[in-house]
């Protein structure tokens, strides 16, 4: 197994120089990253096309543009985030002042996935740089062209002992996890997330895990069905469903199920054409293993529409299944593809109960015009984040932290949450020397009585 100890040692030495702690250095680094991305924009678009057949529109809107905006947002706010925060002090600390200082951890390891191979590598890197860390970035081997381009952007923008990209497969990830980093940020599946956490525990390394799960979408009886169908089709079938926050299954009220399915089929045709497999911009499945896994779901329940496949091009039509039960294989794991099971309910409590009996999802989506229904679902179900009357769009806002809960992950990022994730909050109390409060000392007469007056 290759050792990356020397690389990490060089990063530790550079971090020890305290260059990265200078705010001007971080700002310059973010500007260099942005310039590097802009310089390689066409190369990135071509790479995403080669790896996943992403259209130029999807490549820019879901990968490149969202990252450029995240950098711009961070540059606008970084000075404010990095300032020490003065906090209040209790009466027991009369004469003191309390401060919280944000300091970088050191060298961070970022393990990125294949489904959004550029965005999900660059977005956490922005937070690591903003907080003042060095970083080792490991992009996915399943999207080699994009990973190579990421490596070129980083190599031409930064010195290796500051930011470095390491290419390779599972063995490379294992070798990196065997090293002692100061922080680990992982995006990927739940099983691999457990492996990452075990490796981090050996060094007591703090982690952020961005995982996934079966994110539900509820369509209530009063929903705007046409709009709901379009927004669900957009959120589910972009990137051929290979999105961690895509609606994994739908719970639709029995009274509107047929109308909703009709609207959903029309929305899919509107977005991808009558024959999506012939659409040159329709994203493909990342590899044969995932294609075969998804193909096995197509026999579950009743095919409402879709179901066509092209094994040579690794594409699967946007597919909707009905007459699905929780015992079906498609409901046993996160789908992560363009297959959408639709279940029905009579009473909202039925859907809520079923969802609550599952592992806590990364996202939840609800379509309804009723404020009381919105509050009932929000208060009753635990989930990482989500939308009311939309899907996926919440992750685009830099003002909303993005992360999971329970088996869907731990920690959050985007905007200030990224800065906070890669920063340790150091608490400092400054004590006065003008006087000394005597009641805290054990030789104080009636000391216990005085203490009880303050601590109660």
Corresponding CATH superfamily of the largest domain:
Aldehyde Dehydrogenase, Chain A, domain 1
Portion in beta strands: 15-25%
Given as residue ranges, the uncertain stretches (5+ residues, pLDDT < 50) are none
**What structural category characterises the helix and strand content?**
alpha/beta
Number of domains: 2
Number of helices: 15
CATH class of the largest domain: Alpha Beta
Question: What's the quaternary structure here?
Answer: single chain
CATH names the topology of the largest domain as Aldehyde Dehydrogenase, Chain A, domain 1
Overall radius of gyration: 25 Å
Largest sheet: 7 strands, mixed
Family: Belongs to the aldehyde dehydrogenase family.
GO molecular function: aldehyde dehydrogenase (NAD+) activity
InterPro entries: Ald_DH/histidinol_DH (IPR016161), Ald_DH_C (IPR016163), Ald_DH_CS_CYS (IPR016160), Ald_DH_CS_GLU (IPR029510), Ald_DH_N (IPR016162), Aldehyde_DH_dom (IPR015590), Aldehyde_DH_NAD(P) (IPR012394)
Protein name: Aldehyde dehydrogenase
Structure, explained:
The chain has helices spanning 5-16, 23-39, 41-52, 56-82, 119-131, 144-157, 170-178, 190-202, 225-237, 257-272, 288-295, 348-356, 371-380, 416-421, 447-454, and strands spanning 85-87, 96-104, 107-111, 134-138, 163-165, 183-187, 207-210, 216-219, 249-253, 302-305, 309-310, 315-316, 319-322, 339-345, 363-367, 385-388, 409-410, 423-431. The radius of gyration is 25 Å and the shape is globular. The chain starts with a helix and ends with a helix. Helix 3 packs antiparallel against helix 6 and helix 4 packs parallel to helix 5 (119-131). Helix 13 (371-380) links the parallel strand 15 (363-367) and strand 16. The mean pLDDT is 95. The chain is α/β, with parallel strands linked by helices. The protein has 2 domains: 4-211 and 408-428, Aldehyde Dehydrogenase, Chain A, domain 1 (3-Layer(aba) Sandwich); 216-396, Aldehyde Dehydrogenase, Chain A, domain 2. It has 15 helices and 18 strands. The strands form 4 sheets. Strands 10-13-14-9-8-15-16 form a 7-stranded mixed sheet. A 6-stranded mixed sheet has the order 5-4-3-6-7-17, with helices on both faces. A 3-stranded antiparallel sheet has the order 1-2-18. The active site is at 210, 244. Belongs to the aldehyde dehydrogenase family. One of its GO terms (cellular component) is cytoplasm. This is Aldehyde dehydrogenase. InterPro entries: Ald_DH/histidinol_DH, Ald_DH_C, Ald_DH_CS_CYS, Ald_DH_CS_GLU, Ald_DH_N, Aldehyde_DH_dom, Aldehyde_DH_NAD(P).
């Amino acid at each position: 197994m290759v050792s990356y100890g020397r690389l990490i040692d060089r990063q530790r030495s550079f971090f020890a120089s305290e260059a990265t702690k200078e705010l001007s250095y971080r700002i310059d680094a973010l500007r260099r990253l942005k310039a590097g991305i802009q310089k390689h924009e066409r190369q990135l678009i071509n790479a995403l096309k080669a790896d996943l057949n992403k259209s130029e529109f999807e490549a820019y809107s879901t990968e490149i543009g969202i990252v450029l905006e995240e950098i711009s947002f961070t540059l606008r706010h970084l000075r404010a985030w990095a300032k020490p925060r003065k906090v209040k002090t209790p009466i027991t600390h009369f004469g003191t002042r309390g401060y919280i200082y944000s300091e970088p951890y050191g060298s961070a390891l970022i393990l990125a996935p294949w489904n959004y191979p550029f965005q999900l590598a660059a977005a956490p890197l922005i937070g690591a740089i903003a907080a003042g860390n060095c970083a080792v970035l490991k992009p996915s081997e399943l999207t080699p062209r994009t990973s190579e381009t990421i490596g070129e952007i980083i190599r031409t923008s930064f010195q290796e002992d500051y930011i470095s990209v390491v290419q390779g497969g599972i063995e490379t990830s294992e070798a990196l996890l065997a090293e002692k980093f100061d922080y680990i940020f992982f995006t990927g599946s739940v099983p691999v997330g457990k492996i990452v956490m075990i490796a981090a525990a050996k060094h007591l390394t703090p982690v952020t895990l961005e995982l996934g799960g079966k994110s539900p979408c509820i369509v209530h009886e009063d929903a705007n069905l046409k709009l709901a169908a379009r927004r669900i089709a957009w959120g589910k079938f972009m990137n051929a469903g290979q999105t961690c926050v895509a609606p994994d299954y739908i719970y639709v009220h029995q009274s509107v199920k047929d109308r909703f399915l009709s609207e959903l089929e029309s929305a899919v045709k509107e977005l991808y054409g009558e024959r999506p497999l012939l659409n040159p911009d329709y994203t493909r499945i990342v590899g044969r293993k995932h294609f075969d896994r998804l193909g096995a779901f197509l026999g579950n329940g009743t095919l409402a529409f879709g179901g066509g496949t092209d094994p040579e091009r690794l594409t699967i039509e946007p597919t909707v299944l009905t007459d699905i039960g929780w015992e079906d294989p498609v409901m046993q794991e996160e789908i992560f593809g363009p297959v959408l099971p639709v279940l029905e309910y009579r009473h909202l409590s039925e859907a809520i109960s079923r969802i609550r009996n599952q592992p806590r999802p990364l996202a939840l989506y609800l379509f309804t015009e009723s404020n009381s229904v919105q509050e009932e679902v929000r208060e009753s179900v635990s989930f990482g984040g989500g939308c009311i009357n939309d899907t996926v769009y919440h992750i685009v806002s830099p003002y909303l932290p993005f992360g999971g809960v329970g088996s869907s992950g731990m920690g959050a990022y985007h905007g200030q949450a990224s800065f906070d994730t890669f920063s340790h909050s150091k608490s400092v109390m400054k004590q006065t020397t003008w006087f000394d409060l005597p009641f805290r000392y054990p030789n104080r007469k009636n000391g216990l009585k005085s203490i009880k007056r303050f601590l109660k």
